[in-house]
Amino acid sequence: MQAGNRQYRRARDIPAVIPVFPLSAALLLPGGRMPLNVFEPRYLEMIDHAIGGDRLVGMIQPNLEGEMKPGGEPELCEVGCVGRITTFAETGDGRYLISLQGICRFRVAEELHARTPFRQCRVLPFLGDLDEEKGAEDVNRPALLKVFRAYLEANDLEADWESVSRAENATLVNALSMMSPYGAAEKQALLEAPDLKTRADTLIAITEMALARDREDFGSSLQ
């Protein structure tokens, strides 16, 4: 996996401890790009810390059940995604505008009792994610594009179909998963899918259920 000017191929390329950014319903996947508008002081400090080091940040969701730590912080989901800061800009009002490029998913081994205002975790990387092409040939691309087109039509949205048609399977699956408008539980299910095929199948199933609900709601409104 390449992110910016760095190659990530082996376990030792990923630090054992990374700062984490808990954000509900945010999904970063390997190879994907996530823009972030950072304004909270402790996360501004986290970005300073990352920029001064290996430029890596772990995106992770708060626990889906709403469980809290004794100190009042939310518990974390078990799985997140490491991202490298590939663009960085300061605004005139104290914010940072950054982009993260996903490298690989990780499992939280433990959260450290860090003295920093931002949270840090010891992580176990999903090394299979470093092989960008693994499982891409198993994706049911026609079914994915069919349900994506149906969703766009149902919501009066448009897409750059030329770019979509050129995208490789891994890029297509992960980009559509990241931009999907679903909630925290659905985003976590997409993140934790064991391979690209399962992620694509999960996205198809979630979208088909959303379309079916929309049809039912439309039918009810006409009665």
Description of the structure:
35% of the residues lie in helices and 25% in strands. The chain has 223 residues and is α+β, with helices and mostly antiparallel strands. The protein has 2 domains: 2-130, LON domain-like (Archaeosine Trna-guanine Transglycosylase, Chain: A, domain 4); 136-222, no CATH class. The strands form 2 sheets. Strands 3-5-6-7-8 form a 5-stranded mixed β-barrel. It has a two-stranded antiparallel ribbon with strand order 1-2. α2 (141-154) packs parallel to α6 and α5 runs antiparallel to α6. The mean pLDDT is 90.
CATH class of the largest domain: Mainly Beta
Number of separate domains = 2
Largest sheet: 5 strands, mixed, barrel
The backbone outline, from C-alpha atoms, is globular
Chain-averaged pLDDT: 90
The strand count comes to 8
User: N-to-C SSE series?
Assistant: EEEEHEEEEHHHHH
The proportion of residues forming helix, as a percent range, comes to 25-40%
What is the CATH fold-level name of the largest domain? Archaeosine Trna-guanine Transglycosylase, Chain: A, domain 4
Low-confidence stretches: none
CATH superfamily of the largest domain: LON domain-like
Give the helix/strand layout.
Blueprint (H helix, E strand, L loop, with lengths): L1 E2 L2 E2 L9 E6 L10 E6 L2 H11 L4 E5 L18 E12 L5 E16 L7 E7 L15 H14 L6 H6 L2 H11 L4 H9 L3 H27 L1
Parallel strand pairs: 3-5
Antiparallel strand pairs: 1-2, 3-8, 4-7, 5-6, 6-7, 7-8
Helix pairs in contact: 2-6, 4-6, 5-6
